Description:
mainly alpha, elongated
Amino acid sequence: xxxxxxxxxxxxxxxxxxxxxxxxxxxxxxxxxxxxxxxxxxxxxxxxxxxxxxxxxxxxxxxxxxxxxxxxxxxxxxxxxxxxxxxxxxxxxxxxxxxxxxxxxxxxxxxxxxxxxxxxxxxxxxxxxxxxxxxxxxxxxxxxxxxxxxxxxxxxxxxxxxxxxxxxxxxxxxxxxxxxxxxxxxxxxxxxxxxxxxxxxxxxxxxxxxxxxxxxxxxxxxxxxxxxxxxxxxxxxxxxxxxxxxxxxxxxxxxxxxxxxxxxxxxxxxxxxxxxxxxxxxxxxxxxxxxxxxxxxxxxxxxxxxxxxxxxxxxxxxxxxxxxxxxxxxxxxxxxxxxxxxxxxxxxxxxxxxxxxxxxxxxxxxxxxxxxxxxxxxxxxxxxxxxxxxxxxxxxxxxxxxxxxxxxxxxxxxxxxxxxxxxxxxxxxxxxxxxxxxxxxxxxxxxxxxxxxxxxxxxxxxxxxxxxxxxxxxxxxxxxxxxxxxxxxxxxxxxxxxxxxxxxxxxxxxxxxxxxxxxxxxxxxxxxxxxxxxxxxxxxxxxxxxxxxxxxxxxxxxxxxxxxxxxxxxxxxxxxxxxx
Length: 580
């Protein structure tokens, strides 16, 4: 029914002689509201006032449509509100007509009348909400709407979502819960439903409302649905605009364990945006999250998720400072001792996040036992997964390698022996990571090179010179070239005849599986400063490979090495003649 059909005969009046009842009364009211909305859009004066009225009309329309999806019969709670709604519609119709025709007597009087009719519609909306809040419909009253099959049309999907919305709005507790469960099922099964939910805007507001509910089941189920929606970046803003953050923080504070898990999962995704991080903090989220981390009775899934939310929040400097002041460093170092890997991994991420680029916090982490706690994760006697050990090893590298003092502390705790263990015995992924860490460690200080040489690292690095991966071969060669610059390591390296033979063999220009020849020659150059090293190079059957490289002008380093070896041979000959 358009507004042109809203004639004097059809216009609602309070004392109409024929009063439809039940469903016909409801549907007639819905039709009149639709027509009034259409008429209001023709008004060109008092635009702000009419927009507010139109918003209330649409809210009222949505609420009555929800009731229309149910076979309610002569429900007295709802039927009793129709006369007053129809009277206000009639009054508003008269005002709209006068505004369209510009036939009102004065602006101030019309503005006052519009304010009064807005207030009346607002009261109708609140009355309807109170009726629905009591859950006047149960599953016994509801018409069954089947879930559309996969590949259903958008209209069928919208119809199904609107039906679920109706159940969430006006059903009893059991119906609300079932509707939420069905909603969760469809958004998990087909992500197209997420867009439908956003399009049917009222769903988001109902979900946010349920997060504030005193019914634990409604909190838990709505948090689950929101956690799916928030996984789509383009819809995060819709949820935030609907006010989702404050109730999520409230659930963290006072909800059930399952509700808290759902809320933490939502906040984890929302706080990937630093603007939302501020909002979480403003609603007391940091304190609520920290409280969970300190609670020994909380299950590991919840604590792990909470750690990840805090890890996101720590990217905002002011929030990080607040966390430090609240004792976050001590709390998370305590969590590093957890045997639950989900907590451990999340805690390591937080420690790295809060200490990165902040020397004072990094020193605090070290001072309070952070390094020792991380090295415990690397201890082979504990049965952590390789993935967790890799995360711990990267954390050690990031936190400690920029300071010679930290490196010294690391080595005093036996870190070199742990590296050697994983180089020899680790799975491929952690073995390669360990090699990278060892390569970087030997470049930190002379002390580190000596410690690695004493531990037996050079023999393992030599094995990697023949690895399939070019990156691995290159790192092994570069690490060795650094280590043999230490006299003690040089002598140790030369003692094994096979070491020099392998280096020379890998210099063969025709050898496709060679490491970085520049580093191999660098190792040999260092070895020439050792008498036994020079002799073994010159006497090796593979020494000709150096000449080949030099003659082919492939490497200027090879030419320098040949020149140095030749000079040393000439000096040896002169020395022999002089002493004869």
